[in-house]
Amino acid sequence: MAVTVALGSVERSFNFRFPTSCCSSKPPTTTTYRPAVILPGLGNNSGDYQKLQLTLKDYGVASVVAKVSRIDWLRNAAGLLDPNYWKGTLAPRPVLDWYLKRVDEAVQEAKQLTQGGNLSFIGHSAGGWLARVYMEEFGLSQISLLLTLGTPHLPPPKGVEGVIDQTRGLLDYVEKNCSKAVYTPQLKYVCIAGRYIQGARLFGNSNVNANAAFRAPVEDDDLQMQISEIAVAKNLNDTTPNSPTFRARFIGQGYKQVCGRADVWGDGIVPEASAHLEGALNVSLDGVYHSPVGSNDLSRPWYGSPAIVEQWIHHLLS
Q: What pTM value is reported for the model?
């Protein structure tokens, strides 16, 4: 598995091989590290992160998930009553006060485990930029790490045809008002992006190679052969070599709404480039899907699958 790590202008690539087991081979440890607060992504609930909690526990990392249910996200509809929603200049507060309150409750619970020590934040998807809002509004004196998983950090570009800011200005607010990412001994930002599938433009041919448009999570020759055979079979009736699949075009339209381009790599929801932040330690992982919902630890692992956690857990242990 190829992993790209970048910090500032320094970029290095490493190769990793995932274990073929669906579970981490690491034996439970008795060593304890700073607790982590997990911030759920848009549409997710707390229960989606139970397996991730167990995996972290195996490494000696206790965790608390902000208590969020799927129906809670309907509270965001209150933003429709704010004129700024329609102007595209919406601010996180008061629309997202309910979420920030849940995060604060999780932080207070996690503090009971620290004995005066620091905390780590793990923000999945929108939970990553909401973590930045929380840190700005509530302070960050006890937070020593913000690790984001597939978070769309950057607002979509302005003036691109067919692109509508799905956050209605929220990401603009975060970019302008929240502290910039840093990587210092006191506070580290680590932004992890997945390269699960390459998108394609809706019409015409994109720069998409049918055999390379999907990244397998393991370096397994037999599996790669199967993927190549599937890609070829799907394109037997195409008149143009390497014609993008409907799936690639569909996903590409989602990418375009986030970053302004369709023919880019991403985790199936968030483009790779959007999940990175200037000033942070930025990491890209091949074969990683966006969400715990619809994931499979073997064929479609997400950021919280045991074999993927193994690639980033060291940031919580240092």
A: 0.81
